[in-house]
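Reading group handout, session on sequence-to-structure problems. Before we discuss, look at one worked example. The prompt was deliberately terse, the way you'd type it at a terminal:

> structure DUF2085 domain-containing protein

The input record follows.
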Amino acid sequence: MSFLWLGCVAGSLLLVGLAVIPPWLPEATRWLLMQAFAPLCHQIPARSPTIDGVHLAVCDRCIGIYSGLAGGVVLAAALRATAVPIVKHLQHVRTLSWDRVLSVLRLALVGVLIPLAIDWLGPFVAEWTSLSGWTNSVESRFATGLLLGVVAGLLLIVVIANSRARTRAHPNEDVSSSEGTSTRRTTDADV
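And the output record:
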């Protein structure tokens, strides 16, 4: 497994770890961590999980998204040994390409946004219509976030793998930077 894969797995697990660690931190450190997550999450107390009465750094949906992102990245890393040879074989017979996999995952991402949007909008719609009683729950917020996170994690890995595959296919190709200079693309030997 390359450093890039290990970095993606470690980074996604670190994000989940940072989101759930506040109950075990000293007050000042907890406050700093909560402030770091504040631009990413509303942190509404009624919608945020607690451990021993201390809120996590993110809400139910965000902890689902971060957990799903880590799960998707770990799943992709675990399946890498079997998935890459299958994709390469299918590319050889011209029935599947990285671009096709990327397109399917993009559609899946849009698809998982639908239940998330319904769960998020449901209480507002119920308030404006005769659908009183509609509400979302801790479980629905976590589950819709988890779905989004898993697909986003898989999509992230496919984008990285696709980028690396294209780089390997043309290792000495120069890439122009915004200043007009050219730089050589990074290869596996560089990583």
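Points for discussion. First: Residues 60-92 form the longest helix (33 residues). Second: Residues 182-191 have pLDDT under 50 and may be disordered.
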